[in-house]
Target: GNAT family N-acetyltransferase
Amino acid sequence: MEQIELVELDEENIDDGGCYCLRSKPSSTGYINKNKWLMRRFNEGLKYIKIMENNKPAGFIEYTPIEYSSRVVYGENYLVIHCLWVNITGKGYASKLINKSIQDAQEQNKDGVIVITNPNTSWTPSKDVFIKNNFREIDNAPYGFELLVNKFGHSPDPYFPKDWDERLKLFKDLTILRTQQCPFVDVSANNVVKAANKLGINAEIIDIKNREELLRLSPTPYGIYGVIYKNKLVSFHRLTVHSAIKRIKEII
Model:
């Protein structure tokens, strides 16, 4: 009989449990940076919960109060889901994790739970499982981003900013905007730097320090990673060196 357990990471067990992503590479820079990032976020109310099947990781969810969120969305008194991933499908584990976030939101007297999805990338959760769990789509943004909410309070609906084109105008040189919320950001940025070097272009990396910077600078709702060149979006997710070269050449 399967033994199913929800395990919440905290300051005490993070060294043993670690983040779900890149769990096979605990010595990698991305994994180490993610764990350090988590340690700084727990006191803000961030939750990182793994679902375990017979003591083995089967998936995880990460969410936090909107005022500390790494996603570019406006609203008051919501929780925001950053990530949801399950590697054992067909057993309702994703719904179990989503329902945990909803339960926490209700216990904290929040007005709902937000998630950002995008059908064009695996870097965001799948939309369908949220619709199944009573989320509804209420806004969208360029590049395929969708804003969904499960609302049970009286706060105004959350919303995306509308100045995406103006944000791109801030960056003419090849610029990488990043935080350490995702452990894959490190290799993603390195691939772009390698691509730029091959093309003889200098790449500037800006490490976003706080939510105010993120809300002001990010070129997409994803928030934690964006590459811009000549006022155009290169990518908001990981590219191979070859793909980055191709994309940069298209802009040139």
